[in-house]
Amino acid sequence: MKKVYLVDYNRCNLRFCGRQCIKKCPITLSNARLKLNRKKRVVPIWFQNSTKKIKIKDERCLKCGICVNVCPAKAIYVKNILEEPSELIPTHKYPNNNETDKECFRLYNLPTLISGKVSGLCGPNGIGKTTVLNIVSGNLKPNFGRTDINSEEIQWNSVIKNIKESEMRNHFVAISHGDRKIAYKQQVLRVLFEKYQGRTVLEIINSENDGISSKFYQNIMDYLDIHAISERLLEQCSGGELQRFAITMVLIKKADIYVIDEPCTFLDVQKRIKLAQLFRARALGFGSEKPCPVLVV
């Protein structure tokens, strides 16, 4: 773990604090004791005139924590972050299009898919949740840090060779042989309008039903309140209604794994609770259906 010292500028009030964080810094104090002809060390915390804000340079900081303790407004705080091991190979890496920035997106490891369990991926935007779903669903082949080749050029044999976890290795072996059926509910819903234009919700669902048990089918229709929109054209549906339809289209499929990207958008609390119950029932193998993994973001 690496300590990083941050400043909350909403709390920082330089007019009343006397800049105690700068005055009490050990490097500031040691510099004050040096003779005039001695070279002084660069202070890690200082007041920047151009921005009128306190700045902290992490590379110079001793990590002593004195500035945190002496700040009367509690504007300085510590955050522990994980350090990236240099010897660790990323599962997937996106090429960097900005030549001035050396950093680029890197993804490490994949979630383990457990039959009969619902697994969830949580986190802020941009940390790779959808990338994980695309890899797990087989839509994106992981490059393991090699940004010089496209995903289409990567062979499944090289992917399987680099996967250490046995269950995930078997998962990708099945995908490479075409033996694994994956039901994937994507984040973008507007593409459904083009695919099913001019058809009612019930017509589409009945035509796409893979023959799941009638009781589970009825539960899906009841829990997601599809009856209320069954006779409506898809382009007439609201955001929440379109979301419920998209989830239904995934759950009525017979698949080996269900991958769901952001199912709760536009749904109220009651519908979200019902949705969680449906996902759990689907994972456990409702009725005559076999247990399978469900991965949700």
Give the spatial strand order of the biggest sheet. Answer: 7-10-9-8
Residue share in β-strands: 5-15%
CATH 4th-level superfamily of the largest domain: P-loop containing nucleotide triphosphate hydrolases
The CATH architecture category of the largest domain equals: 3-Layer(aba) Sandwich
The outline comes out as elongated
Sketch the major β-sheet.
4 strands, parallel
Q: Number of folding domains?
A: 3
Total strand count, please? 10
Secondary structure class reads: alpha/beta
SSE order, one letter for each helix or strand? EHHHEEHEEEEHHHEHHHHEHE
Approximate helicity band: 25-40%
Radius of gyration: 27 Å
Which CATH class of the largest domain is shown? Alpha Beta
The number of distinct helices, counting runs of at least 4 residues, comes to: 12
The span between the termini is 26 Å
Low-confidence segments, ≥5 residues, pLDDT <50?
A: none
What does this entry show, briefly?
This protein is an alpha/beta fold and 297 residues long.
Structure description:
The chain has 297 residues and is α/β, with parallel strands linked by helices. It has three domains: 2-81, 2-Layer Sandwich (Alpha-Beta Plaits), CATH 3.30.70.20; 92-114 and 128-176, no CATH class; 182-296, P-loop containing nucleotide triphosphate hydrolases (Rossmann fold), CATH 3.40.50.300. It has helices at 14-17, 20-23, 26-33, 66-70, 129-136, 156-162, 166-176, 191-195, 201-208, 214-223, 239-251, 269-284; strands at residues 2-7, 45-48, 53-56, 76-81, 92-93, 106-107, 118-120, 182-185, 257-260, 294-296. The strands form four sheets. It has a four-stranded parallel β-sheet. Helix 12 (269-284) links the parallel strand 9 (257-260) and strand 10. Helix 6 packs antiparallel against helix 7 (166-176). The radius of gyration is 27 Å and the shape is elongated. The mean pLDDT is 89.
